[in-house]
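Async update (no meeting this week)

Hi team, since we skipped the sync, here's where things stand on the single-chain job. The sequence we agreed to prioritize is pasted below, unchanged from the tracker. I ran it this morning and attached the output directly underneath so nobody has to dig for it. Comments welcome in thread, and please keep replies under the output.
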Amino acid sequence: MSRMGVAFLLGLILFTGVSTGEAFTNVAAIFQLGAGARPIGMGGAFLALADDENAAFYNPAGLGWMDRIGVTSFFSQPFGVVSYGALCLSFPYFGVSWLQLDSGWIASGESGFRYVSQAGMISSGFSIGPLGFGLRGKLYLIREPYTSSGWAVDPAFLVVTDVIRVGFVVENPFASPIGFGDGHTEEWERAARLGVALTLRPSDGVRWNAAFEASGLFSASPQLAVGLEAWVGGLAARVGIAGSETTLGLTVRFASFQIDWAYAIHSGLGDSHRASLTYRF
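Output:
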């Protein structure tokens, strides 16, 4: 791929949402790239499920049902252009996440540039009966080729029954504008996400999940994602659709380890692999 092509695709990933099918309207796009190959294999429709370590990223209210300590890592190279990774550590009622997007060095004429953005999350959640409540604090940083920073806090909710789960997150209602070194500031986009999940257990060791999620509510560009998942013992397969992207996924779980893989098919920019490794204590 040419250097100009690399720069062009990097811009698309950051500002048009090619990895999730969503339209980004602010520079804090890294939060919409997702974390965890299992949720991404379901098209990102994980808000209402939020039943593993990925809850720290997708819906902190799900941490109210966590009964173990887990660490999960995530890595992808979207369309072979940039490197994107995440690391999440979750406990009962508490979780932390770290994200990094790195373009590597992109030469342009006799010079070049490197784009590096980072983000951190501190999440907390608790449950009272079938009701879960959570907060997700987000810190956003751009390291290169210029600097900027900002923070936001998202309240989250989750209702859990044996069959139906409903999740809701309000995005960026409390926030500090993203400030740049030259004095320019940019506001976080305020919106909401609503998710519904259906879980069926037809027999021992068999579980089916269907998840639906609407994002960008009350904004100019709402989006819909749908995901299906089937578990048989420690094996799982899934499929998802989000905008113009179709995703597939597989899981192998053995002892305290879990390996998740997702494959994203984008109609305009090609395909990409994503992988996660999880260990539970």
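Quick observations from my side:
The first strand starts at residue 70 and ends at 76.
The chain is about 10% helix and 60% strand.
Reply here if anything looks off.
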